[in-house]
Specification:
alpha+beta, elongated
Length: 88
Amino acid sequence: MLVSGVTVLSGCGTVVDREKLQDTVQSSLENSIHEKIKIVECPSDESIDPGATFTCDVIFSDDRREVATLKIRNEEADISMISLKPKK
């Protein structure tokens, strides 16, 4: 399943703000796929490196786990969601 939501985040120095990222990914997903999400877990030390991709674990209210792949679009730490797939 490909999710084409776009999120915008303010960077905090040279790393992505983890709390803002997790909150933004959660609300973006809930709005786009209309499912309740329990938690989003993203890395805490993701550098703002335009073009880089990274993943966050998404745990739904029914405890199903999926992996969101995100891409850093620019120096302002704007993020695009590339995909959401079941965790293997």
